[in-house]
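note to self: the first set is below, dont mix up w the second
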Amino acid sequence: MNILILNAGITNFNYVKTIDELEQTIGVNHIGQAYLTKLLLPNLIANCPSRIVVVSSDLHAGPPLNYQMLDQWNSGMKNGWHIARSYQQSKLANVLFARALASRFQSQQITAYSLHPGVIKTNLGSGIPLLGLAKSFLKTKTMSEGVATSIFCAIKTDLENETGEYFADSTVQNDADKWTEQDLEQFWNWTEKIIQDKVK
């Protein structure tokens, strides 16, 4: 079985753009990973069964994906940009991406899962004032504890029926059940358009 784990993640205190002129948080946390997956999909399909594991966060909970707002941020307009909002939208995109992959490629023996790893002792957000202090009040996990759910989703046998689901502490949370096929199609097309516009 082939396994792809998408674990890239950043958060920014200020509005920053990628070299490709995308708002950096959505660019790194979702678009870059979606593009990598797009490049690898032919091999994943040709050598199936394959699994794709997308590391998200419980912080995905909140407003639905706001495509107009994200497009404005990607075009350089900072209106409404906020550290928490940009991170929430990117982590929600992670959950939707796993769900969309599961919907589109299950017939080709590709399964996909998203997950919350927990609050881990890493340097994520180390440049953000007071975040380190806030973490000291939260129940954190060691690195080994933090990767446990990712490994579970990657290698657990007989997990095919849970494709598209969202996990925390190696348990399905059912957070990925609320989107329709139309929602997933809209999300997929939006992601594809951004990739196509940037790799012409």
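second set (the one i keep forgetting abt)
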Amino acid sequence: MPIEQVTLLLLGLLAVQLFSGVPFAVATGTTAAIVAIVNFGPQSLLIIASRIFDISDNYPLLAVPMFIMMGNILERSGVAEKLFSAMHVFTRKLPGGLAVSTVLAATLMAAMVGVVGAEVVMLGLVALPAMLKRGYDKRIAIGVVVAGGSLGTMVPPSLVLVVYGLIANVSISDLFMAAVFPGLLLAGLYVGYVIVRCWTDPTLAPVSTLIDHTSSDPSDTSIAEPQSLRERVVLFSPLVIIALVLGSLYGGVATPTEAAAMGVLGAMLSAAANSQLTAKSLWEAVQQTGRSLGPVVWIFFGANAMVNVYALAGGIDFIKGSFLAFDLPPMLLLGAIMIFLAVLGCFIDWIGIAFLTMPVFVPLITELGMSPIWFGVVFCMNMQISYLSPPFGPACFYLKSVAPPDISLADIFRSITPFVALQVVAIGLVIMFPQIALWPVKP
């Protein structure tokens, strides 16, 4: 069958199933099987089975459940609340200090958790009520929680970076190093926006003060300064976890999978320091990890099978040749890819986007003389926008699940608009100045 017909068949089958509500993993796996049978005959199904076994034997893939486990343990450890309080000690005199502390706490939590869902939920339970009770503008409060929580896609150890590294066959350690400064750039833009808005309009964010830790008034919404030795130890636990995960990676002591395991250990120690490490909480974390990991693994299998069948039919070379046939300047071609990914992000989860598009775009980017490490960072920044973009916008739905009843989904989507604009600005800066990402990476 000509590759043009194979492409139309594949896209048609996939679109019909997705619009019919078929789960993405099932849709891609079914499409792979049908295209393989039509194009190569029934015996080609053995190729799909062999590819699944090959993927299952991928050692770096073990980092994915480890990082998810780490996030689930930290979600139950109570560290988020104390970290939020500690950040406010340093930011309370700034305009919008509570919102600024939310972004800073989100950045540190992203460096510990690496899972957007867990981070948005934690911030939604801890930071959002505190800001709303103190009279913060609803849009500012919602925006910093959703945008700050989505930093988990960028700040290492990000699952998006791990999955991209596995697909693109590039160093996950280098990806982590390259993503640090773009992640801090995003956090800095959020902080700058909040300070400028609240400085020009003080009614958006009333000044908050510290109170004595012994206050028993349940209606008191002030932020208390850490007092006991245990509380102060808990506040240092994020630095310990970050040092265990990123320090071991950057120091060449551990592989990404080993660093993820050390992160789980750090999360357990952190929970123990906060008296939250119990058999029940640990078992709940294990169960949640399994529920989160199952769909990821099936998407991994289904999308990988579909891409491999399409590649065997010559599809990768066909798409790459089609892009190059336009003879566009590299930056214009990159812009078209970014727009295409952003549109996909409105309808498909980032995992599906990564498995469907990166096997095509990474060789294309490499052929154009661009760094696949740098492109991985730009891709992750693009996927951060997808976490906020309607109608999919998973980060918005995560917040809605724990937000007060008077906050509608429409309120959340309206609140994230300026933060999406800041994300676009950040992507533009990293594209125009690649060294923002590449300078820590060895050539």
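remember for set 2: Residues 25 and 298 are 6 Å apart (CA to CA).
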